[in-house]
Amino acid sequence: MFFDILSVRAKQGNKTMTYPDGPPPTLPDRFAGLPVIDQSICSTCPGPCVDSCPSGAVEKADNLTIDLGKCLFCRECQRACPKGALSFGQDHRLGSSTREGLISLGDGAAPSAYNDRAADLYGKVFSIRVVSAGGCGACEADTNVLNTLAWDLSRFGINYAASPRHCDGMIIIGPVPTNMVEAVVETYRAIPEPKFVIAVGSCTVTASSKEGFPVPVDLYIPGCPPHPLTILDGMLRFLGKVKE
């Protein structure tokens, strides 16, 4: 029986994806990535997409912009556009090392996620404590799936750790309500310096933009929830493991 198991396993082959050395996994048609905006059309439009956005992510001044940090990627703005000038592509590169980098003009340019200090210190090994701070569970699920066989996060030297004292940074998921502030702060304090904070999901990114957010953020990964590929790509570019 033992040899039968080995035989079956050998026939199965390697189940871990080849990305980033090979192509990324195929994304479903419903996936909404970086927005694509035809500004020449938007300049003469009254902007029904602005009113259609449930999270206030779409704004129109000199140009139409979408705040990816607030965006739910629900496509309501796309459906509201009478001229088809706004759509969402399949580009998964949404992570940004600055909050300002999440303001998209829809020109196809991905935000920069690279952090030279993080890459210099933790480019080989990076341990993270994940803190669920009032999230709905969706971002937690897409973060946890990176530890499965298909994604194999540890092959990049990135590991989730139980104790913050053994970590180099933390992932925060959720809007950090009042009852979770102490947990977030104490976890942050327990991580040795130098340390980095990653905000995953629209709830966390939006909360981190408000005055009084309890910890500084070094990497923003938007989405509701972000696809596992978006989370992985953000961390790899942040640490310089994937060139931008």
Automatic annotation (TrEMBL):
Top-rank taxon, per record: Bacteria
Pfam families, sorted: Fer4_7 (PF12838), Oxidored_q6 (PF01058)
Protein name: Ni,Fe-hydrogenase III small subunit
Domain 4Fe-4S ferredoxin-type: 33-63, 64-91
Entry's Gene Ontology molecular function annotations: 4 iron, 4 sulfur cluster binding; metal ion binding
Record family assignment: Belongs to the FrhG family.
The keyword Iron-sulfur appears for this protein: yes
Keywords: 4Fe-4S, Iron, Iron-sulfur, Metal-binding
Cofactor(s) named in the record: [4Fe-4S] cluster
Origin species: Dethiosulfovibrio salsuginis
